[in-house]
Design brief:
By secondary structure, the chain is α+β, with helices and mostly antiparallel strands. It is built from 3 helices and 10 strands; from the N terminus they run E-E-E-E-E-E-E-H-E-E-E-H-H.
Length: about 220
Amino acid sequence: MAKSSRSKSVPVESRKSPPAKAKIFSSRTVYRGPVFWVTTDDVQEPGGVRARRDIIHHTGSVVILAVDESRSIPRVLLERQYRHAANDYLWEIPAGRIDSGEQPLAAAKRELLEETGYTAAHWRRIFRFYASPGFVAETMAVYLATGLRAGTARPEADEVIRQRMVSLPTAVRMVLNGTVRDAKTISSVLWLDHQVANRLVLRPSQGTPREGHETRKSPKSAR
């Protein structure tokens, strides 16, 4: 029988063109402060909509999920501090701004030490997200810090922080009952709970995996 002259079909994903970019007709800085700046942009978005977009720009932040593995049930390092934007005290995990020219991992190590006094032997970036992409360009990179060692905190002059180590089940309950109302903390605690529930390795035994990589325990090590 004659061979078909038809060429092999190409998977749909491989035929996708690169994502379209927005066309910016003008961008004007309307505010610049020590932490962020705001621009008003006249933009035509990839879907064809032309609109004014007011965007808050930021150098980016790091978030530290500091986990104590010395006990059978992991513990999470939480902080409690006043947040004027929320007009309340909030439970959070450590976080802070990436300074100009600073690498994210270096910023994470600095923030953990300054806010809590802790240092960590093992670091791994687990995910990265936009804080509020409707109008804020800030990204947050979440780092898992293990092998913790306590020390003396070095908070900034305007920081009054109380810290507490809580068990992972307690942290999850705090998320689910609304005690924790901070998005970065909610997502990080639930990520950790998923890892533990599915017996996923938090700290690789050899080498350093690529960022965000998950390695399952072998049957022997899962005992």
